[in-house]
């Protein structure tokens, strides 16, 4: 009897030991990836709502991406220069809205394109040289910068000698000063068409008119190049592709009058850092 009891107790110890080892062998559930994104006050794309929270269609799309990838994402709306400073100091993981350019791919891993847009020249109707397609030579053109808009303006100035560029630090200043005639009677603004439309919503119709479409572009999200972010960018690409194919991105953008980017363009979204010539 004693021998049988000892054998039973030994067997029980073996079972408990095996269970304990099995529990240790099961990996703990990984905690969700916590990512910090910065953006700017840039309606209709992104802005701060009445409760002080980040809002807008690109914020909504990002939240959908983070939910699909099982990430915990925090979005902070800042002045654009401060947003740049925050991410360049490594104090944020991602930034948007961003246009995918070779220069930016040196520092960031870019997402697939999410929303289409256009840069246009706008001015007051009825002034000299305001006819559709009239070259902007000899006039002052204002743009917000530093930004993709100001870089586009630099290209316009190179193509039209005598044109004067004026860069505004406040993204709302270009439309406001155009309405006030601050750039001269024939002054123009190079603006994001959707942003200008949003800013002009409270003004009388026809206060400013489109003079010329300068270029089309696409916005997406950018992750700072750092260890581990290449893998996260692949997850982001997969999530955006799925949301695009399902029509979810289009449904989130349409109420704001924005057009979703072509889903096919996301196939080539994950591009390596471009090789640019070194600056002297």
UniProtKB/TrEMBL annotation:
The lineage of its organism: Bacteria, Pseudomonadati, Pseudomonadota, Betaproteobacteria, Burkholderiales. Keywords: Signal. It comes from the Bacteria. Gene3D superfamilies: Periplasmic binding protein-like II. The keyword Cell membrane does not apply. The keyword Signal applies. Residues 34-260 form the Solute-binding protein family 3/N-terminal domain. Residues 1-30 form the signal peptide. InterPro entries: Solute-binding_3/MltF_N. This is Solute-binding protein family 3/N-terminal domain-containing protein. Pfam families: SBP_bac_3.
């Amino acid at each position: 009897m004693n021998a049988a009891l000892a054998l039973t107790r030994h067997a029980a110890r073996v079972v408990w030991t095996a269970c304990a080892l099995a529990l240790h062998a099961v990996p703990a559930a990984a905690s969700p990836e916590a990512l910090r994104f910065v953006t700017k006050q840039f309606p209709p794309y992104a802005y701060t709502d009445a409760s002080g929270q980040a809002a807008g269609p690109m914020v909504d799309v990002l939240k959908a991406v983070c939910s699909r990838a099982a990430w915990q994402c925090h979005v902070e709306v800042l002045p654009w220069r401060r947003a740049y400073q925050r991410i360049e100091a490594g104090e944020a993981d991602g930034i948007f809205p961003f246009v995918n350019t070779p220069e930016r791919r040196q520092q960031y891993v870019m997402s697939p394109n999410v929303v289409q847009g256009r840069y246009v020249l706008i001015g007051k109707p009825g002034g000299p040289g305001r006819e559709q397609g009239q070259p902007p030579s000899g006039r002052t053109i204002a743009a917000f910068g530093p930004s993709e808009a100001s870089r586009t303006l630099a290209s316009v100035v190179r193509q039209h000698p005598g044109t004067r560029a004026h860069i505004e630090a406040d993204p709302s200043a270009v439309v406001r000063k155009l309405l006030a005639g601050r750039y001269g009677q024939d002054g123009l603004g190079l603006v994001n068409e959707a942003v200008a439309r949003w800013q002009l919503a409270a003004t009388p119709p026809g206060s400013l008119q489109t003079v010329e479409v300068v270029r089309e572009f696409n916005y997406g999200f950018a992750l700072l190049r750092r260890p581990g972010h290449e893998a996260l960018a692949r997850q982001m690409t997969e999530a955006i592709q799925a949301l695009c194919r399902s029509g979810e991105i289009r449904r989130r953008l349409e109420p704001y009058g924005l057009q979703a980017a072509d889903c096919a363009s996301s196939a080539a979204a994950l591009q390596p850092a471009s090789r640019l010539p070194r600056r002297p």
